[in-house]
Design goal:
Chains A, B: It catalyses: prephenate + NAD(+) = 3-(4-hydroxyphenyl)pyruvate + CO2 + NADH. Chains A, B: Pathway: Amino-acid biosynthesis; L-tyrosine biosynthesis; (4-hydroxyphenyl)pyruvate from prephenate (NAD(+) route): step 1/1. Chains A, B: One of its GO terms (biological process) is tyrosine biosynthetic process. The structure is a homodimer of 360-residue chains. Chain A is an alpha/beta fold and 360 residues long. The first copy, chain A, has 3 domains: 9-167, Rossmann fold (3-Layer(aba) Sandwich); 173-275, 6-phosphogluconate dehydrogenase C-terminal fold, CATH 1.10.3660.10; 283-359, 2-Layer Sandwich (Alpha-Beta Plaits), CATH 3.30.70. Chain A is built from 13 helices and 11 strands. Chain A has a 7-stranded mixed β-sheet with strand order 2-1-3-4-5-6-7, sandwiched between helices. In chain A, strands 9-10-8-11 form a 4-stranded antiparallel β-sheet, with helices on one face. In chain A, helix 1 links the parallel strand 1 (9-13) and strand 2 (33-36). In chain A, helix 6 (169-192) crosses helix 10 (231-253) and helix 10 runs antiparallel to helix 11. Chains A and B meet through helix 6, helix 7, helix 8, helix 9 and helix 10 of A and helix 1, helix 6, helix 7, helix 8 and helix 9 of B.
Chain lengths: 360, 360
């Protein structure tokens, strides 16, 4: 891993979630960060919180990071390339082909341009959610460019704790269409079905509905731009989904027809296959065992459980809490290496913890 | 809340996830539970784990709970109604109209039948996931029936910690189509798009993709039955979704056409509206504040954090962990009452915890 030190000033244009987070992260590493935004109040807020300093007349940034919405990214990149004739100018827009095409069409010399995109962020966007550690462990795609200019961008990526991934603009856009943009459209379509539902129906909602619709709370203004900029790849994947949806509906409308049950089974098996492609939470396909421990809803109980897991010399790989509205306790789902499960169960039971009843 | 004591024997037919969990829960309340299953080894396992006892020749159950797959539920209900001429016979199948229609078509006297359905369970089904507390705080729909027989079923629901909800069979099936069955189909369709993806593309996966496809790991065998039994309501909702998907694809294929951007914005806004209908995790629309604390990946650190939150006299309403593959620490997202947020931040920072940088 190259822990190259970033020399020179880094100028960030756009103090929203990404720009401000980049600023916070780089300042924490001692970099001289300049923050600019079209909105004076936005830049003042970013500066107040430590994302960088205001621009000065004698600034000489070696790297400019353009973190503005996709619709205006190419325009701002072009402007910054012209304003700083020796600087590398990178963007972080979530679509890459559109930005590149706009720049090429405008006849901009792209020698000093590097397209990039950090795969980070949360549904709650905007500057109020900015964090220095937003990028840690996340992939950050770095696109075409002069090798030493790409290296300058990769240095920033690594300083922010992210993992540089090289991809062409087209490969990138197809990939994010699949793993981000299409899921957004699908979640929104699914969630919209609830709009006219009775209170009684939505009161039956469980974790499955919550999970499949969580990202439907995304902000329309940003996503209209993202989907508009990546419309080709997104539409292509949605067409494939549309075709399979049609097959599913036909089977459901004539469930006793020959082959109908099989079509539904194949739909579900196809989902099994696809979801298994997603890397495990720890970045591998490793599977952990889970045990569910009942935790009284008293102060300190969960802390005691975690302490005793540590005393049992078992590493807790993951923890998920389930609450039951109105219950006097919660359920802690502990993930451990499979070979440690039996040990942990016996250690915890010996200390009086109630492991939820399970069969072998 | 009626904490009516269950008198008499309860016979459970079907020792899978639901049946075994009901047995475990009722045994924990001192009920004499009889367990029957077509598979001798399944029933022996259930009995070994404490879900009940084996049937005896002189059994006189007052309540029979049929917990077999949807395809055979009506047949087993009819058999049990005939075998126990005074018992109330309830089922717990996840579709109600189909079961009722089958019973009516078979000319079965339904005076002693009560349809019901607990909205509980996890993707990992089967007896190995049975838990006495599976139903706590969950809604449990109780359908038509003689009032005192409905009351007998509601007594069980309440003893198991669940919340009885009265609904007709048709209202139930429409509701579960919307909040459970359609999401299952959609998650499977979406996940299937990943089957042929490159490793590089899926390596970019984030929480959004994981959430929208989690339930795509559901078991096909069970879901073919569920979807087959509720195919009408599911198909109807999918038709509505299909229509809106078509509008979205058209807009994306001609993103610069008049009205295309607006159509995409309306899709996203519709998703916002729908997802806001889902009750909050604690059963209300209450919102909590979140703060994100960095937790070194050393043993005992998370336990220490929870202990110190308790010492700060702040109740932790929820906890979510985020891991970063390859990072030396994780992020703990703590939910607290908004009025406690500032206090907790200052208390934790005074104890050396690093709160992720945020804007107000």
């Amino acid at each position: 891993m190259n822990l190259g030190r970033i020399t020179g000033q880094v100028r960030i244009v756009g103090a929203g979630l990404l720009g401000a987070s980049i600023g916070l992260g780089l300042r924490a590493k001692g970099v001289d960060v300049i923050v600019h935004d079209a909105s004076r109040s936005t830049v003042n807020l970013a500066i107040d919180y430590g994302a960088g300093r205001a621009p000065l007349d004698d600034d000489t940034p070696t790297l400019v990071i353009v973190a503005v919405p996709p619709d205006v990214t190419a325009e701002v990149v072009a402007r910054e390339l012209a304003a700083w004739p020796r600087a590398t100018v990178a963007d972080v827009a979530s679509v890459k082909v559109g930005v590149l095409d706009e720049l090429i069409a405008a006849g901009v010399d792209l020698d000093r341009y590097v397209g990039s995109h950090p795969l980070a962020g949360r549904e709650r966007g905007g500057a109020s959610a900015a964090r220095a550690d937003l990028f840690i462990g996340r992939p950050w795609v770095v696109g075409r460019g002069e090798p030493f200019r790409r290296r300058a961008v990769e240095d920033v990526v690594i300083e922010l704790g992210a993992i540089p991934v090289a991809m062409s603009a087209a490969e990138h856009d197809n990939a994010v269409a699949l793993i981000s943009h299409v899921p957004q459209v699908v979640a929104s379509l699914l969630a919209h079905r609830l709009a006219g539902a009775s209170d009684a129906a939505v009161a039956l909602a469980g974790q499955g509905l919550r999970d499949t619709t969580r990202i439907a709370s995304s902000a329309p203004e940003l996503w209209v731009q993202i989907l508009g900029a990546n419309s080709g790849p997104v539409a292509q994947i949605l067409r494939e989904l549309q075709a399979e949806l049609g097959v599913a509906i036909d089977a459901l409308e004539t469930p006793d027809a020959p082959g109908a049950r099989r079509a539904i089974a194949e739909l579900l098996a196809g989902g099994n296959t696809g979801v298994a492609r997603i890397p495990g939470k720890h970045g591998t396909s490793r599977h952990f065992s889970q045990l569910v421990v009942m935790v009284d809803d008293k102060p300190g109980e969960l802390a005691r459980l975690l302490t005793e897991i540590g005393e049992a010399q078992v590493n807790m790989e993951d923890l998920r809490l389930e609450h039951s509205p109105g219950a006097q306790f919660g359920l802690a789902e502990i993930s451990v290496l499979p070979e440690k499960e039996a040990l942990l169960i016996s250690e915890l039971e010996a200390r009086g913890w109630k492991i939820a009843e399970t069969f072998a």
